[in-house]
Amino acid sequence: MQLVSPRYLESGYMWLLFVVGVFTALYGNVFLASVIIGFSLYALIMPELLFRLAEYVHVEVTDELKLFPNDEETYTIKLVSTAPVPLGVVRLSGYLHPTVESEEHAFWRQENYVGREAVVAYTLPLKAIRRGPIRMEAIGMEIRDPLRMFSLYKEDPLDRIGYVFPEFLPYPIPKRPPTLPGEEMVRHSAYRDPETFQSVAPYHGQPMRQLYWSAYAKTGELLARTEQPVQANEYVVVLDLLTKDGRALTHQMERLISQAAALCRDFEKENASYGLIVPTLTKEGITYDLAPGSGETHFRKVMTTLACLSERDFPLARSLFERKVAKYGGSQSILRLGGDGR
Description:
Blueprint: E1 2-4, H1 11-27, H2 30-54, E2 57-61, E3 65-67, E4 72-81, E5 88-96, E6 100-101, E7 107-114, E8 119-128, E9 132-134, E10 136-144, E11 151-156, E12 162-164, E13 175-176, E14 185-186, E15 196-202, H3 213-219, E16 223-228, E17 234-240, H4 253-269, E18 273-281, E19 287-293, H5 296-308, E20 314-315, H6 318-326, E21 332-338
Parallel strand pairs: 3-12, 17-18, 17-21
Antiparallel strand pairs: 1-11, 2-4, 4-8, 5-7, 5-10, 6-8, 9-12, 10-11, 13-14, 15-16, 18-19, 18-20
Helix pairs in contact: 1-2, 4-5
């Protein structure tokens, strides 16, 4: 906490003024002495009173925000006062993280009257700008005395109040291997594997791509393959954000994150089980690995992870990253975005 006041109101000057008031009362005008003594006592007592009142005040945040770029939302910050006296007009202010802005400004402030033992709501209009966590560096509180002579500034730490999720961008879908020479079949879905060979039956007008040409070359009989699209049990999205040498993060980081978000959204629509692997470490040494799962809670966890990815994260050594990816297999289908597969 920090007290701001004019220099002439410092305690040394006020004690001197108090002594002048006493001598004035003894040898001069009593009314003038009363004014001088009252003013000096007010200036000596009020700073300590402001410090004590500030201990009764704190800030609370409401629900967590979940926005997409260009979304607008009004967030509510609650100032809770348990002080036994009214605080008057209290100002809250703070600098916003670059992911959002308030009325086209990065700085926000608002004043409201705070009564005795009151809970006052401060509104924070927000517009999402880009992907990332939503936070304020610190929220400042300004409490002033009734005569506006002193200002007490108190800072409350404020946890992140939400996230701006990445946009959804179209993602590349691997092509299925050609069945006929010169044929090219494109997959229209990332959550279905290429058609797999099931059985052989006599040819009775099936599509040409189902003809079993190798069997016809050996037997001279037209046979058709019965194929059926299959779906894996689990999917693992590998978001490879490393450069080819594995020493830094790619400049295409935002595009790859948006593609991964769209891919996970489609998995969720299909009620598929999906996980996420990212080759980065936070400053605290935490990795961004999510085991396969499904449902609204899992989707929000994935989107929150994608929102938290930062250029300040440390790249994981490619050898360690590939070793982690190699652990997945069997019924799990691995879909890689970025890296050599971009």
